[in-house]
Inverse folding.
DNA sequence: TAATGGGTATGAGATTTCTCATATTGTTTT
DNA sequence: AAAACAATATGAGAAATCTCATACCCATTA
């Protein structure tokens, strides 16, 4: 993690996300621009942070570590979103860990202005909206994971993450997100290839029968 | 669902939960007391409500219906908590259904004062706290469901819900909450009985070997 | 250069969980 | 009282998923 001093970049993102609009007062003096490398820890599970982050670019994962050592991937975070807001309002240490998956750019807000934030209706309203959307996204992911077999969930996930008909997520990440073992994921992926729905290429899996895949994702098969 | 006109009961709950404290203005004129019978719908999935509820007593369930007809129980709601707050801040129709499991008493807030609520820092702060706690509880339930087999989850659940060493939840509800079929739940329950950990009685299942059950709940077995 | 570690890949066998069928009981509705 | 319904209960077989073992490739590190 390192601070980015480029004023240009700062301005660029500030404009892009209309960062002013989230606050009823001038948050600029408390804000700086940070870059996280892949694997960098953004929030350490169980420790307290005195910053509130806003993801501008990149992708991060939210996870929980269980007593038996297994790690559950709760969700991905994609820009734009806040990070660390739950901890801030409850004034508690991080209940999830957050780690960068790709290079991430964030605004970092120094919580020395916390009292001011908690009196700002503009900010609080936005926070409520972000929180409820995040909850909704978590819960939908969660309940979908319970309601369907991997075949269905994987089909959705491939359609969601493919670019130009090419699926190239890391198997390790996908398996964690979908809540299954790596082994099982490969079984089902192999099944899709055998059925001619996907084709394995050196650059990733190419979607051959998109309609079929959509039907599977809809739980029709 | 019916309105309760007893001024006494109203006052009693108002005091018990210090209901004033959640608001920066006088919410009383907008508040009434409602009683829901078991099975009554509190929030109808997909429709818009113009009330915000606050659960005073009883127990409700939050669920999502999937396209394939399966219903996922997202969580239980226990007093005290808000109901319908996500829909309110995002001004959208209910993304989960909420149904009473036991007789439920609620304060019902008429959202004609919505604009005022959304300008009230006291309320907004409390809402943020409630929202993040709810998220946390959902996510912990969710991730636990992914990380352990039913044996482990059921052991926790029995320890959580037993009264005086007696477990007597409805199997149908437990199965839904733990995200498994009814059939499978009965298998594992029977296994506990066979192993002498539980004993089946006419009034419910009695916990015989509590230490053993705790070990299983901890994932140690 | 050798060793280490992460991601990828595949097989074999075990465990968990599901589907379907069927029966009993107690309660509510007709 | 008969019918309908929801919860409980159990069996048999199938599907989904996991564990463990093993191997290869590539990049980083000693």
């Amino acid at each position: 993690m390192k601070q980015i001093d480029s004023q240009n970049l700062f301005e660029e993102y500030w404009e892009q996300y209309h960062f002013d609009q989230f606050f009823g007062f001038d948050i600029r003096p408390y804000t700086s621009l940070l870059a996280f490398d892949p694997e960098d820890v953004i929030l350490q599970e169980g420790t307290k942070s005195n910053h509130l982050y806003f993801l501008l670019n990149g992708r991060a994962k939210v996870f929980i570590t269980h007593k038996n050592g297994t790690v559950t991937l709760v969700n991905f975070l994609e820009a734009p979103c806040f990070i660390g807001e739950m901890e801030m309002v409850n004034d508690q240490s991080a209940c999830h860990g957050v780690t960068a998956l790709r290079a991430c750019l964030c605004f970092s807000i120094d919580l020395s202005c916390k009292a001011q934030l908690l009196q700002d209706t503009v900010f609080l309203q936005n926070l409520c909206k972000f929180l409820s959307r995040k909850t909704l996204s978590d819960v939908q992911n969660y309940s979908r994971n319970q309601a369907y077999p991997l075949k269905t969930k994987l089909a959705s996930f491939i359609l969601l993450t493919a670019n130009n008909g090419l699926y190239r997520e890391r198997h390790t990440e996908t398996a964690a997100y979908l809540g299954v073992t790596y082994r099982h994921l490969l079984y089902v992926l192999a099944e899709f290839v055998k059925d001619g729905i996907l084709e394995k290429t050196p650059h990733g899996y190419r979607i051959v029968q998109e309609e079929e895949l959509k039907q599977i994702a809809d739980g029709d098969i």
In short: The longest strand of chain B covers residues 71-78. Chain B has a mean pLDDT of 90. The CA atoms of residues 85 and 127 of chain B lie 8 Å apart.
